[in-house]
Amino acid sequence: MTILLPTSTAGSLPKPSWLAEPEKLWSPWKLQNEELIDGKKDALSLALFDQLRAGIDIVSDGEQTRQHFVTTFIEHLSGVDFEKREVVKIRNRYEASVPTVVGAVERQKPVFVEDARFLRQLTNKPIKWALPGPMTMIDTLYDAHYKSREKLAWEFAKILNQEAKELEAAGVDIIQFDEPAFNVFFDEVNDWGIAALERAIEGLKCETAVHICYGYGIKANTDWKQTLGSEWRQYEEAFPKLQTSNIDIVSLECHNSRVPMDLLELIRGKKVMVGAIDVATNNIETPEEVADTLRKALQFVDADKLYPSTNCGMTPLSRKVATGKLNALSAGADIIRRELSGK
Ligand SMILES: [Zn+2]
Fold first, then answer.
1. Distance 177 CA to ligand 1 centre (A)
2. What are 175's strand-pairing partners?
3. pLDDT value for 2
4. From the CA atom positions of the chain, what is the Rg in Å?
5. For 133-146, how does the pLDDT look when each residue is reduced to its tens digit (9 = 90+)?
6. CA of 313 to the centre of ligand 1 (A)
7. Residue 1: which of 333, 326, 307 has the closest Cα?
8. How far is the CA of 312 from the centre of ligand 1 (A)?
9. Ligand 1 mean position to 91 CA, how many Å?
């Protein structure tokens, strides 16, 4: 990256109200068939435009073509029965009715590759593409076939690798795997979670990232955060193994969080996407507040490895709030760029 402190988002942006009901997770589509296909493309173009207008350096599709960051990918796989549902506890936190794995999981055809090609032709900016991570995928399913979380994660890692290779060929510069589950299942992360992630990035030449957060700003997550005490040290569990892994970039929640910033020392050498925008509030950060978080992170991340970002996806927010937050992120990064260059 030639620019210092390149900005990006963790992934999702709100959808236009004509495509899906805003401020809602798993919001159903308002269009159908051909209209839906065209509508998703238009929304993707708008999401790109919003990022460009805000001066975001590494752009994404804003996840406009997916209903949910995990479910939509799984919907494209065989071996999962969406009619057969079981209630499970997601990330040990909240109950949800999820589909069942009934046979061998396979990717019959590419999931997001067409969308990535479309985004690629709209911009020359670096593109980041988010995929769910293997551990977070298995946590959003009931497994009646493999009966082993590790085995199923390994199968998903192989499938994600196929998709990632085709996204790379479509011109994606950074492929990001979303692993909020890494903040919950510490033993599994160290036993096989990071190994599965490395299987997913095997053979890729583009940059790779893992996004680990405390979740969207929904009630189940904010309630959970209230129970975590004054210091959130969850990252400490996965960092040592991540530091020695092949992953290039680690994307983290840092703003308004109780994560002690010095934990970042444990991944020194990795590029860090520092979350400097809180996605769990409608308050729009001031550029100075963003700059303050980045300044704190700079104590533990070398300037050439610091990528200002958002704590998590912004899909549950209104477009107006999300746009305000994109602008704040850019302006905050700019303050620090000027400080670093002594101007
Ligand atoms: Zn997140």
1. 10
2. 129, 208
3. 81
4. 19
5. 999 999 999 999 99
6. 6
7. 307
8. 4
9. 13
CA of 342 to the centre of ligand 1 (A): 33
Q: How confident is residue 204, by pLDDT bands cut at 50, 70 and 90?
A: very high
Ligand 1 centroid to Cα of residue 49, in Å, is 22
Chain segment 77-106, per-residue pLDDT in tens? 999 999 999 999 888 888 888 999 999 999
Q: How far is the CA of 181 from the centre of ligand 1 (A)?
A: 10
Kindly state the tokens that stand for 309: 């970002």
Single out the residue of 96, 82, 86 nearest to residue 25, CA to CA. Answer: 96
Average model confidence (pLDDT) across the chain: 95
Give residue 274 CA to ligand 1 midpoint distance, Å. 12
**Ligand 1 centroid, distance to 139 Cα (angstroms):** 15
| 154: pLDDT strictly greater than 90 | yes
Percent pLDDT > 90 in the chain is 88
Distance 339 CA to ligand 1 centre (A): 29
- Report the C-alpha gap between 248 and 271 in whole angstroms: 6
- Which of 10, 2, 140, 15 has its CA nearest to residue 73? 140
| pLDDT of the residue at 250 | 98
Q: Is 257 exposed, middle or buried (0-12, 13-18, 19+ CB in 10 A)?
A: buried
